[in-house]
Amino acid sequence: MLRADNRYSRLVVWLKIILPIVGLVLLSLLFLVARPATDVQSTIPYAKVEIDEIVADQRISAPTHSGVTADGDAIEFKAKLAAPSPDKPDSITSEGISARIDLKGGTTISLTAPQASVDGPTQTARLSGGVEVNTSTGVMVRTDAVTTSLETATLVTDGPVEATSSLGQITAGQMTLIQQNRGVHVLVFQNGVRVIYQP
Amino acid sequence: QQVAFGKIANNPDAALEITADQLSVNQENGTAVFDGNVVIGQGVMRLAAGRVLVVYAEGDQKIERLEATGGVTLVNGEDAAEAERADYSIANNEVVMSGNVLVTQGPNALTSESMTLDLATGTARMNGRVKTILNTGQD
């Protein structure tokens, strides 16, 4: 090879060797060292409690139970969470309950409550913790606890109720939904009723 | 026959309060029935009856009239009237009582077949075999 006599050519010859090596080093740095400082998995915070709870006991999240009663009223129960209740055998406690009863006559009654316990043998559900009942005939009822059956479209409140409807403000000692002989459902307020109507 | 009934004119817009033993709201056609010593109160007027059916006006949710049956007593101010049945129409602020009506005003009493009481003016018109017993009160 012709000996490179002047400085510039010697420089170029060396550069031809050094530059590729530097390139190689950079490339390897990029791949080998590029791993992030900390492991991604551990930086996202999540509650371990929830998982232990889920793993620990049997539970169903977002269960729904729907069916049609013998006399043709559709009943549907939805909940956020349901788990077998520890004290009573084969009954379920659930949270965030919303129930809907579609009466044959066309009226719908919807109930919402924070907690409920569904009793297997008697097929009844007791909604408690402040229940709100709305009917499509424009009646809105608020009471503390309601027992409703999963087999027939009936409903009994434990205690006093306050309701608003086209009749105005209604307060009563108790309220029940019963089915009269011709299959007509009637919402009955009893134990002393007081209605205030504003003409 | 025209009779004055209760001095105070009844304010038709005053709130109406109904108390009863039981109220059942039919979930199909929405009719409401009060049962068991029902008392309807508005202003100074009190209407007590065994059973009251609520009749809504067509279409909107306003109450058109209340049909009271099962022995009705109406007290308006210091006058009282009894009958078998009464229809209290809120719209035109009047009570129509029918079925051997008995009106007592202080010492004297009047009976008739039916009576129409206009709550706004406090006048009652009695018709159908009106009998008046004026008690001159010597005894």
Mind explaining what this structure looks like?
Chain A: It comes from Nereida ignava. Chain A: Keywords: Membrane, Transmembrane, Transmembrane helix. Chain A: InterPro entries: LipoPS_assembly_LptC-rel. Chain A is α+β, with helices and mostly antiparallel strands and 199 residues long. Chain A has a domain of 139 residues: lipopolysaccharide transport protein A fold, CATH 2.60.450. Chain A is 20% helix and 46% strand. Chain A has an eight-stranded antiparallel beta barrel. In chain A, strand 6 and strand 7 form a beta hairpin. The relative contact order of chain A is 0.09. Chain B is mainly β and 139 residues long. In chain B, 0% of the residues lie in helices and 64% in strands. Chain B is built from no helices and 13 strands. A six-stranded antiparallel β-barrel of chain B has the order 5-6-9-10-8-7. In chain B, strand 5 and strand 6 form a beta hairpin. Chain B is elongated. Classes of the chains: A alpha+beta (199), B mainly beta (139). At the A-B interface, strand 13 and strand 14 of A face strand 2 and strand 3 of B. Strand 14 of chain A pairs antiparallel with strand 3 of chain B.
